[in-house]
Amino acid sequence: MRRAQIFLSFLILTKKKNMNEVVNSLKLMPINYYIAFCSILFVIGVIGVLIKRNAIVIFMSIELMLNSINLLLAAFSVYHNNPAGQILVIFIMVVAAAEVAAGLAILVATFRNTHSIDVNLLNQLKG
After folding, report:
1. 0.85 exceeded by pTM
2. Considering the chain, what percentage of its residues have pLDDT values greater than 90?
3. Which of 16, 89, 115, 117 has the fewest CB atoms within 10 Å, counting from its CB?
4. In 3D, which of 65, 100, 71, 103 has the Cα closest to residue 88?
């Protein structure tokens, strides 16, 4: 019940123009919850990278890890009243988008040669 009230108060405060009220509503949730949630997301991403063989799923797992770091960085930025962390999050998202674009281009080129997206078949590309 308490979490629902916090979420509803956040939704109500985001409609207002005062940014200080939004920041204060974000601080209602303890930082430990953010740390636990982001750690779980990061571990899921690591498991996806280590276990899966599909290249698309591996890219999605890497993006999950990057987004969990971004969320935690933004949470710490709000708790310390320092907007530098949020600016850094924007730069990390730009780099992640470029990484996905380059990775998918490599994946398409690999698929044209091997007709598979299994990463274990990539050792066949050796010259």
Report:
1. no
2. 30
3. 115
4. 71
